[in-house]
Amino acid sequence: MFARSLLCAVLLAAAPVHAQGMDATYDLSLRGVTGGTIALRGRDQGGSYSVSSAAQATGLVGSLVKYGYEGSARGRIRNGRYVSSEYTEVEIDDGERTASVTRFDGTTPASVTFDPPRAPEPHDIDPTAQRGVIDPLTALYAVLQPVDPARACNVAYDTFDGRHVARLTIGPPSAAADGTLTCQGEYLRLRGYSAKDLERRPNALMTFTLTPVDGGRVQVSEIRSRTRLGDAVLRRR
Fold first, then answer.
1. pLDDT tens-place string over residues 170-222
2. pTM of the model
3. Of 10, 38, 116, 191, which residue is the least packed, with the fewest Cβ within 10 Å?
4. Of 100, 101, 102, 120, residue with least CA distance to 110
């Protein structure tokens, strides 16, 4: 699951709302070799927001793995935070298409539908029993936006993608002389994963680099995470 791993294990976090939207493209590389791209388009309109994203394997990875992802999310902005209403994702993995729609009631999932329907797994969790979560695309949109340096990093959020709950914790920033901030993060799998997945890799450590942009704010320019195959790096074009 190329895109799900990318969106969850590297990027699933949320941050305070400071921008009216963004249009950006990011490159993913592994051990210095470009392996994928993510395009993100989002807009805030009054008290609501909408965001869409497309990801695909490219380069050498794309020649070996036929993968594509399209996602969309919408919701409300409440007290300066994004609150999910609906999240849709479509994945195409080696020609096999799977899709899901997750609807939220506040910060609690209300329902999840899969197309085609999927067989239940022993480790499945009840979506409606989860609390205080947002969808992964909303989280991606939020964490990549410009923020005031005083409000960067030092947060923890839970996310739900229709099957799994995970937590991303970002620690306090360390500032360089040029205004660049570095924050250490941890992605922790919580619920909905098989025992094998939890034993193989229960967490992932990450480094977030935020660089100055217009208006005295900073923005994530790079996210780096160590994998079994080497460093995975997401870098804004």
1. 899 999 999 999 999 999 999 999 999 999 889 999 999 999 998 899 999 99
2. 0.85
3. 116
4. 102
pLDDT in tens, 36-67: 888 999 999 989 999 999 988 887 666 666 77
**Structural tokens at position 196:** 């094998």
The span from the CA of 119 to the CA of 109, in Å, is 20
Question: In angstroms, what is the C-alpha Rg of the chain?
Answer: 17
Confirm if 225 and 9 have CB atoms less than 8 A apart.
yes
CA angle 229, 27, 152 (to 5 degrees): 95
Q: Delimit the domains of the chain by residue range.
A: 2-236
144 and 16 Cβ atoms separated by less than 8 Å: no
| Residue 9 · residue 200 · CB < 8 Å | no
By DSSP bridging, strand 48-57 and strand 165-170 are unpaired
Question: Cα(first)–Cα(last) distance of the chain, in Å?
Answer: 24
Residue 77: burial class (beta carbons within 10 Å; 0-12, 13-18, 19+): middle
Q: Please, what sign has the CA dihedral across residues 89, 37, 170, 145?
A: negative
Give the residue among 19, 57, 52 at the shortest CA–CA distance from 35: 57
Question: How many helices (H) and strands (E) in the chain?
Answer: 4, 15
Structure tokens at 188: 């922790």
Rounded-to-integer distance, Cα 7 and Cα 3, Å:
6
Cα 115 to Cα 183: distance, rounded to the nearest angstrom: 38
Closest CA to 142 of 151, 130, 132: 151
The Cα–Cα gap between 215 and 212 comes to 9
